[in-house]
Amino acid sequence: MSNPTTTTVEHLSIFQYTRGREYVGNRFDTSPRPERFKSYNGPRVRLKTSIYKGEKAPPPPGSLTGVEWLKRLLLPAFGVTSVKFHGHESELLWSFPSAGGRYPVEVYVSVRRLEGIQPGLYHYNALHASLYGIGDAKAADLLSETLPAAERDADVCFILSIVPWRTCWKYAHKGYRFGMVDAGHVAANLQLVLRALGWRFSAYTQLRSEELATLLKLDAYEVPIALVTACTEPASDHGKAPISSASPQRLQLAQRCESQDDADSQLFNWTPIMDFQRRVNATVPEHSEGWLTRLSLPEEWTDYDRLLPLIIERRSSAAFQCCELRAEELDTMLAFIDSLGILFTFHLVIHGVEGLSPGVYRYEEGRLQCLKEGNYRNDSAGICLGQTFIRDCSVLFVFTVDMSQIPDEEFSKYQQCSIDGGALGQFIHLKTEEMGLGFSIIGGFYDDELRDLAQLSDDHQIVYAGAWGRNAPNADDVRKNDRYVMNRPQS
Asked: Fewest Cβ atoms nearer than 10 Å: which of 118, 191, 220, 430?
């Protein structure tokens, strides 16, 4: 009889790279670049974009209309914040990082009670800062019935889906894991901004995806994987009556753009990913508190004015100074990660921190233990697909899921851990921004070699690594070649 853990680990091998077989199965050289955004035509609810013009702190929650509330939430949590130019080429920068700038996450909004917005299901187009109706009030009620009982009367629900073709086109099956992590980035932003606005909310990183996909009329390979429910009264005002809904008239629905249908996606081998999805769906438990994210929000950033610039100005580092960080800087970050309550153990490859010998370390229950000393700058860069800026960073974090702690019948927890891990990465990004340092999430690496370097067993599935250090003076002008090549115009 096979060992269930071994079977599970072997199943997850589709998300791993081995040297010489990094991108086997992708369509980067044979298929046109996938559409980057989902688009609809038709009536829309437009959110004004004045939030980036230095507005004062938001008024009390009860004084905001539904449109104003969504504007203050969605523009920073899921929005384009800048454009980076590479000569004559350009790249959109968002309020959250994404592997290779592929941005596979889509956001849908189910409205039941928001002043000035008709009840229904909407797709949010961040480029247009607009909501497009895709389902009426009855559809919104049906969607509410799929939620845990405690959330079925929520005023609004944000559903996060991933379109894996956008990342799998370049990264093959590992691109699906990148999508799970990216969804965690967005979920983190939504929670932080909701809290700063004073609303009650709950975040779920486990859910039953099939019903939601049907209600949202998603394409065959698009999958909902996380959601955040919210109520318009603050947590301290449970007795407040719900605000009035919009006038009961029929919601005019938008139409999906036909150009979005990508025939080349059918040429990709989806079988391993479909098998993974079936295993996840088969092991999602009945509605329970286990669906809730396991990540605690950081104590910082409860003030909207303090949070907003951190999200908007966050950037993934592309160049580091080859230097030592101060010991207190590392202590601050370790204490911050510890406070989030999700990781009791993780690993670090320390290249340069004052008072610490370079080497591989394990952080466990508040203690940093050296596993082996040595200069691993070149090893780290080589393992991370030759990305040279890894050599110059001061610390390389390694975050993993120990599959030996997840029973086979609870396999869906792997996906939940990946999404929650993405949220952790976004929190680290924001804390790094606040500290005046640089951070970049690394998804491309040779899994077995990084496990060997960190002295991890095969049961440890690496969710991602994270390069951390002091930005080089020219960091804003440095391009990541992988992103540049991937986003170049195609003839």
From this structure: 220
